[in-house]
Amino acid sequence: MDMFNCFKFSSVKLFVKLFLLVFISSGFKPKSYKREQINGFAQGTTYSIVYYTQDKKIDKVKIDSILKSIDLSMSLYTPHSVISKFNLYETKEIELDNHFKKVMEKSFLLYKESKGVFDVTVEPLVRLWGFGSKKVSRLPNQKEIDSVLQYVGMDKLKLQGNKLIKVKDGVKVDLNGIAQGYSVDVLADYLESQSIRHYVIEIGGELRIKGPKPDGSAMKIGIEKPEKEALENELMKDIIHINSGAITTAGNYRKFIQQNDKTISHHINPKNGQPFSGEIISATIYAKDAISADGYDNVIISMKADEAIGFANKHPHLELYLIYKDKTGMIKDTLSTGFKKLLKAQ
After folding, report:
1. Is 177 annotated as a binding residue?
2. E strands present in 204-346
3. In which residues is Mg(2+) bound (predicted)?
4. Most buried of 17, 169, 173, 327 (most Cβ within 10 A)?
């Protein structure tokens, strides 16, 4: 899921929509706990923190300060951020702060595990297809795509201690596909450091949950699915009962460009420079932390539905709920083994 994106794109009704049901269901709430909520704007989107506390109150100024420090590290929209400095052609290497280093370490792991599908060097392709800070008036041709592919590939980067080094001049990085999830985890770590044990953190649809609620009941996240014959009527289908972990939803409906009769997904294949156009419409991903859930979404979207479910079933702490189109164009859904266990009857 992307971060720091202030550029507006067309939107359509979601086939899957996550929204919080936490703290609003009826039930006993211990008097010793008080519900608190912080809302704000960061990384080109909104954030929300809901938590229960007995006597500790979280300062919004501190939350905004943490998010600002991440912006100064990894935001492409902040001219003097570390990532903006690294992306200058003349920069050969740069000293990383702790935020940037942790995200790069995870990125290299995902790059290896996905066999190159997850790749943070897609920045020139993102811009070429119009998903950067500037619109494009037309789609790129193959010659233009080939001209930037030479700068794509994490084998053209090297992480050496605290230094990120360009093996090839001109390589640029874009951490939008993982850094927002990381930001959620940083806020979760901060709440934990303040002895907050019951919370839901959300930034731009990326969620991190810690429960149970003070009354002992599980946290709840609702998954909606529209009627197949009437996309305007979104109905609750299932509720996830969860006490820890992270949830995110990725899909070709979330961000795209419409060019005449062609819909261009923002998920770009780093191997051929073309947008992914697979059968998966939407992937709801559960993982133990938000950086993992966020990082896996581009990998999952690139797969066929049965391949993605098989992938999840082989990976502990990774579960999927997919909506996809079959060969006949019918919209269907499928779940990984572990995701089924997260569901309970309403």
Report:
1. yes
2. 206-210, 219-227, 230-242, 244-251, 256-259, 262-265, 280-287, 318-325, 331-335
3. 177, 294
4. 173
